[in-house]
Amino acid sequence: MKRIAWVAGVLALLSLAGVGGAGWYYSGMVIDPSHGDSYPLEVVSYDGSQVTLRGGGDTDATGTFGLTWASGNALLGDVVARGPGTVTRKVDAVRRGTLEPGVRAYLDRWMWGHENPRSAVGVPYRAVRIRSELGDFPAWRTEGDGSTWVIAVHGRNANPAEALRVLPVFHRLGMPVLSITYRNDEGAPAGPDGRFHLGATEWKEVAAAITYARASGATGVYLYGWSMGGAIVPMAARMLPDEPIKGLILDSPVLDWRAPIELGARQKGVPAWLASVGMFVVERRTGLSFAELDHVAHAEEFTAPVLMFVDADDQTVPVGPAVEFARLRPDITRLFRTSGAGHTGSWNASPNAYEKALTDFVTRLS
Predict the structure, then answer these.
(1) Helix axis angle, 272-286 relative to 258-267, nearest 10°?
(2) What distance in Å separates the CA atoms of residue 10 and residue 55, rounded to the nearest whole number?
(3) Confidence (pLDDT) at 272
(4) How is residue 230 annotated by DSSP?
(5) Which intervals hold domain Peptidase S9 prolyl oligopeptidase catalytic (predicted)?
(6) Half-sphere exposure (CA, 13 Å, Cβ side) for 63?
(7) Helix ranges, the chain (H)
(8) CATH 2.40.10 at 41-108, yes or no
(9) CA–CA gap between residue 303 and residue 365 (Å, rounded)
(10) What is the gyration radius of the CA atoms in the chain, in angstroms?
């Protein structure tokens, strides 16, 4: 009996170690930075006006997109045909490089890859550095003669180029834009532990950007965040109630991190209980509190108007928390919905309507 009990104890310890190891691995998928592009799509054919692509999970997304590969970029239009494992789309233009069979690429919601504002959308800019508590952070600064600035905050493992789609709107309105980086971004200072804190510390770079803008003549700012940037921006608003924040613009925002983590677990076939273990490990490894990061639960703390863009077919960040936030705070929230374009794809699905909503929002409040 003693031997059986000893064996059972060892098996229990091994089981716990296995669960702990799995939780550690899963937690790393949430908080460990990962830089560099991946190219899940293969160009099967290109005839000068249409391209057929194989691979990826969102190749037939609704709207206009970029197709970006290591040495080039093209602009894609509507889906023309679907085949077994392939999608054929209209090609509006090949901007750089050679599009040919065998090229590995990705569907680019930013449209222009990692180009700069001048080469991509014709907006003058300069590279600047913003001093935060960890050092100097690179950023793009576009020019404008207005005193209301926009602080643009990209998503997880992204970079300032995520803001390219909307820079022309603000340039026409005379509003300077700071498209910033934050800790653990490529080319930016790392955080003390080298891990993402999901907005709990990254908001300090937003605070530094506001300080930079005010020192440069800004009297008010809009905070604009995509995806994880849409978690950082609300945290900044909560932490900086005395700053002149005129409004929040959130695109596919992570308003409650538990929702995308649980969705990602289901997509990977991970049991729900293991996702919970992963979140527990995240909290232990970082000192974070998912309850504190839940902006829906803290909806009453917000005072600035909010414009939110969500796509019903977002397979990365569930739209439920955003919809619930809008329900709780209809007094300050405008919700712009699209479908078929996926995560951060509302502009791609309907650029004109998106830009009109954006323009109406900022001009109404200016």
Answers:
(1) 130
(2) 44
(3) 85
(4) H
(5) 194-346
(6) 28
(7) 2-31, 117-121, 167-172, 203-215, 229-239, 258-267, 272-286, 320-328, 346-349, 351-365
(8) yes
(9) 13
(10) 22
The boundaries of every CATH 2.40.10 domain in the chain are: 41-108
Ranges in the chain annotated CATH 3.40.50.1820: 117-365
Give percent above pLDDT 70 in the chain: 93
Q: What would the two tokens of residue 181 be?
A: 């980086």
Task: Please state the rounded mean pLDDT for residues 323-338.
Answer: 98
Q: Is the pLDDT of residue 16 over 90?
A: no
Tokens 């991190």 label which residue?
257
Q: Could you please report the per-residue DSSP string of 135-177? A: EEEEEEEE--S-SEEEEEE--TT--GGGGGGGHHHHHHTT--E
How many Cα atoms within 13 Å fall on the side-chain side of residue 74?
26
- At 197, list the tokens: 């804190």
Please write the tens of the pLDDT for every residue from 293-316: 999 999 999 999 999 999 999 999
Beta-ladder partners of 335: 308
- Find, among 203, 157, 201, the residue nearest to 316 by Cα: 157
Residue type, 95: R
Classify domain 117-365 by CATH architecture. 3-Layer(aba) Sandwich (3.40)
Q: What is the pLDDT of residue 19?
A: 54
Does the reported pTM lie above 0.90?
A: yes
Structure tokens at 74: 């093209």
269 pLDDT higher than 90: no
| Residue 122 pLDDT exceeds 90 | yes
3-state SS track over 308-356: EEEECCCCCCCCHHHHHHHHHCCCCEEEEEECCCCCCCHHHHCHHHHHH
